[in-house]
Every structure is written in C-alpha cells, then in structure tokens.
Write a structure and sequence with these properties.
Strand order of the largest sheet: 10-9-11-12-8-13
CATH architecture of the largest domain: 3-Layer(aba) Sandwich
CATH class of the largest domain: Alpha Beta
Number of helices: 17
Shape: globular
Distance between the termini: 44 Å
Structural class: alpha/beta
C-alpha cells in the first residue's frame, strides 16, 4: 500500500535551468567553459555533499582559471537560477488532504538554500525530508535513501519517488520504491495519479511494468500481443501498437481503430512490399527508424500503459534497425509501462533484458500442406 510520496526538489518543486541562467550573463563560449568548470567536472556535487563553499569554489577556479571572474559571478548570483514554482504547495497539500505523507529527498547545498530561501517555501508544508548537505551523501548513493528511510521509519515498498534524473530513479527502484521519472508537472502528476489508482484498486502487478518478448518460428506471436492489447483495453488501460514491417491493414487493425479508442495503432511498413525476397531500400530504413522514434516517444509520453512493438525483432534481423537502438529503448522503458516486442529472431541481448520470453515453436502447420494465408485467420 502506498503511504508516502517522496519528491526531489531541483527541477521538480523548484525551477533550476542552469543554461538559461548562464546564457543571461555570458556569451556562448564562456557559458560552456563556466559550465564545464562548475558542473561537468562533478565539483558541484561536492557542494551538495556538504563541502564548504570556499573549498568548492577553489575547485571551480582550478578547473579553468581563465574564466575565474565569470565563475565567481555565476556562483555569487546562483540564487537567480532558482525559481519558485506556483504548483508546489497546492500539489503537496492536495496529497496530504488525501492522507498521504509527503517528503523530500534532494541533492541541495546549504549555500544554495541561503541564496533564495523563498523558493523553498513549500518545505514547511511537507512531513519532512533529507537534504544531501546534511546527510553528507548524494543521490544516487544508497546511503542518502537509507537516511530518509531510517529518519522517518519508511518502508520503501510504501513509497513513490519522483525525480528528474534517471540514475536517481534507478537507484530508488533498486531499493524497492515505486518510481516516476519527472519530465514536466503534467506528466508526473498523471503518472502519480495512475499509480495511486492502481494502489487503491489493489492492482499490485501494475505497480511495475515488465518487458515481454514473443518470438520463435511458430504462429501466434502477433496474435498473443493483440490478445493482451484487448485484455488491457478492457481493463481501462491505454495501449499503443506500433506495427513494423507490415504496411497493409490486416483484419485486426480496422477493428481496433473502429471499436477500441483506447488502442492507438500506427503502421511503419512501406509501400515497397514484402522484404523477404529483396534488399531493404532507403524508404524501408527511413520508415523503420521513424517508427522506432515514434514508438519511443509514445512509450515515454506517459499516455500509454501498454506499448507493443509488433515485428520489431524482424526489423532488427533484416537490418532495418540496429540492435543497439532497440536495446536502448528497452533500457529506457518507464517503470509504469508494460512493453511487448514480437517477431522471430529475438537476439540474446534482447532476451536477457526481457522479464518474460515466450518461444513459439512450430510443431505442425498447415502451411506445409500448401494452405495460404486466410482472411480473418492469418491476415
């Protein structure tokens, strides 16, 4: 049961757009040099860890003495980079009114707190939290999460964690928290409400989405994925179906579009026809690449609970898509999304990343007797 909501602060409950801030002071060359010295070196994290500001400032200077004055100015004025967000307090209060306890877990320095304290006016509205500068640890180190659990006697299984950094989200997930990767307020709020609805309904298995692969030489891979799509739509889940290789509208596509508004269908095949007996054209390659990009966008949008990439493994096998891009998509799947990949020839790396792999084995098939595809059965 979810009892606790844990928020990151920077870029979640306060605005912190460093590049916009820096570009308001310096030309592009100095923006990049100052950013390299202060951020890309990793020295800023030492400030968050609780290291004295003057010591961290010296690290910045050593990283690029040629922009010492600019570093000093950016450091002195950094409070201007921190922006109060009007939605923070109402969001927190709405959750507390519904009985949830609300905490923060943030990489944040005492120095930054002092530069713009008004931006943190939501903190008294929360039930508590941990700042990295006091814990002497930073996310994604497990110690800072454990500090929160210990200080407030929290069970990670009863917590939802919201953060904009993928590494921080992954660490929280590894410790047993339900996680939401923050992209914007609307997306994160929608994802949060969905998790809370699943929790209230007792749909425990949907608190985490898994990755399926239906592969092998036997019939039924697409059929199984479509059956899952119908089940999901019937349960009120939102479904995205991306069709690779196939360009014609098989029987299932029309009925999905006509009867199931919960299922979004997109076709990424080309008019050039079947690829079995020919080499891929530029049109084929472009269609597959654009299709994968569109499917990835749908997967990360927060608009869908189930995402199906039909015949995507065949697209890899036929060299329409690089295997690495599909693996990257699998790795970046949001925790709340159920992902299904279908098609013969799923690679070993794909299988290793999946949570469920079903191998369709052909034991007997009437194709061997010369029976062609029949409308409504095979197409």
């Amino acid at each position: 049961m979810i009892r606790n909501i844990v928020f990151d602060i920077g870029r979640v409950l306060v605005g912190f757009e460093w590049m916009d801030y820096a570009r308001g002071m310096f030309d592009e060359e100095r923006v990049q040099r100052v950013t390299d010295a202060m951020w890309r070196t990793g020295h800023w994290w030492e400030l968050d860890r609780g290291t004295a500001p003057e010591e961290v400032l010296e690290l910045f200077f050593r990283a690029d003495p040629g922009v010492r004055d600019e570093i000093q100015e950016a450091f002195d004025r950094v409070g201007e980079c921190v922006r109060r967000l009007d939605y923070a307090i109402p969001w927190i209060e709405s959750l507390k009114e519904r009985g949830y306890r609300v905490y923060f877990l943030s990489n944040y320095s005492e120095y930054l707190m002092g530069t713009n304290p008004g931006a943190l006016d939501f903190v008294p509205h929360m039930d508590g939290g941990v700042f990295s500068c006091y814990a002497k640890a930073i996310k994604p180190e497990p110690a800072i999460y454990q500090a929160l659990f210990d200080q407030y006697d929290l069970d990670p299984r009863e917590c939802i964690f919201i953060d904009d950094m993928e590494a921080n989200v992954r660490a929280a997930k590894d410790l047993g928290m339900t996680v939401i990767r923050f992209e914007n307020r609307e997306q994160a709020a929608a994802d949060l409400e969905r998790w809370l609805a699943y929790d209230r309904l007792g749909i425990g298995q949907m608190r985490r989405g898994y990755t399926h692969i239906y592969t092998g030489g036997g019939k039924g891979k697409t059929t199984a994925a479509l059956g899952l799509a119908m089940r999901a739509a019937g349960a009120g889940l939102r479904v995205y179906l991306g069709e690779f290789i196939k360009e014609m509208e098989y029987g299932e596509i029309g009925i999905l579009r006509e009867r199931f508004p919960e299922v979004k269908v997109e076709l990424f095949g080309t008019s050039a026809g079947c690829l079995i007996d020919r080499q891929p054209t530029d049109e084929d390659l472009r269609g597959a690449a654009e299709g994968l990009a569109r499917a990835e966008e749908a997967m990360k949008s927060g608009d869908y609970d189930l995402v199906i990439l039909d015949e995507v493994t065949v697209a890899v096998e036929l060299q329409l898509l690089p295997e690495e891009r599909v693996l990257q998509l699998m790795d970046e799947k949001p925790d709340s999304v159920e992902l299904v990949l279908t098609g013969r020839g799923a690679t070993e790396a794909m299988r290793e990343r999946a949570d469920l792999v079903t191998e369709m084995e052909e034991v007997k098939h009437y194709y061997r007797q010369g029976v062609c595809s029949r409308k409504g059965i095979e197409c």
